Amino acid sequence: MSPDLENKMHRLRGELACLQRVVVAFSGGVDSTFLLKMAHDVLETDALAMLAVSPSLPHREREEAVRTAEQIGAELVIIDTLEVENADYAANAPNRCFFCKDHVYAALRRCADEHGILHVLDGMNADDTLDVRPGRAAALKHGVRSPLNELGFTKEEVREAAKSLGLEVWDKPAAACLSSRVPYGTPVTADLLARIESAEDYLHSLGFAELRVRHHGDIARIEVPVALFQKAVVRQTELVGGLKALGWLYVTLDLEGLRQGSMNEVLPGVTNRRVEAADSMLAAAVP
């Protein structure tokens, strides 16, 4: 581990100690798991994990999150949220995530208040600022802090630190809510989210660990890492048959491969901002 990462972890422990009691918005992903582990190590029973559950959260993610919290030894509170019933969220405009996070953070804030806890934290890291995230406005609205971002933890550093702490999820693929599989302007419904979840569960059963099934009306667009294209071709009959059985007429494989936030590519300037961000990171890495 680099001295810089060791210093960031030391500073994070100090920051958590100063906060005294915290609620961690917990999803079971590597970022929130690392933050919860650090908070639990520093604050013990004064670090409470809260998991928001709704139709946009896959059942397998909920089960994994519960197991992870148990392994850490942290108390976990599960909150049922109903953002899908919010008309602004269901309309699925490009700022959909704001209405989701506004709903979720309000619920976490109420629960934190009931426990007499002032500080609510989430696991956003410094690299997350490179993508489109309307939910950050909701975090600011509800006073949610992001200590990993504040201290400059990159995703790679979070994974390295999580591995050093013995966390099994250190290399867990990035996840996103099921609504991120639906194009902007297409209404989000619980039934549609359940169909997408069934499709992704089916692909998991075929041995694809990292994937997205994007819904485009009659078309299901499969994203898997480029390295797994040959496997997808070999399992072509099963992929097509399984997804057609779930209601899609056409099944496609995205030749760009798996990538985060591909539904945002329709938004003006998103691709350019990513290229500029990547160029800046590359330039900084060159001596």
Spans of at least 5 consecutive residues whose pLDDT stays below 50 are: 271-287
What integer value in Å does the Rg equal? 19 Å
How many separate helices? 12
Identify the CATH architecture of the largest domain: 3-Layer(aba) Sandwich
Please identify the structural class as seen in this structure.
Answer: alpha/beta
Q: What is the CATH third-level topology name of the largest domain?
A: Rossmann fold
Mean pLDDT across every amino acid position: 89
Assembly context of the chains: single chain
- The helix fraction, in percent, is 40-55%
Sum up the overall morphology in one term. globular
Record field, number of beta strands: 7
CATH superfamily of the largest domain: HUPs
Order of helices and strands: HEHEHEHHEHHHHEEHHEH
Overview of the structural elements:
The protein has 287 residues and is an alpha/beta fold. It folds into two domains: 3-171, 3-Layer(aba) Sandwich (Rossmann fold); 189-263, Alpha-Beta Plaits (2-Layer Sandwich), CATH 3.30.70. Helices cover 48% and strands 12% of the residues. It has helices at 3-19, 30-43, 59-72, 87-91, 96-114, 135-141, 147-150, 155-164, 190-205, 229-234, 236-245, 270-285; strands at 22-25, 47-53, 75-80, 119-121, 212-216, 219-223, 250-253. A four-stranded parallel sheet has the order 3-2-1-4, with helices on both faces. A three-stranded mixed sheet has the order 5-6-7, with helices on one face. Helix 1 crosses helix 2 (30-43), helix 2 (30-43) crosses helix 8 (155-164) and helix 5 (96-114) packs parallel to helix 6 (135-141). The longest helix has 19 residues, at 96-114. The protein is globular. It starts with a helix and ends with a helix.
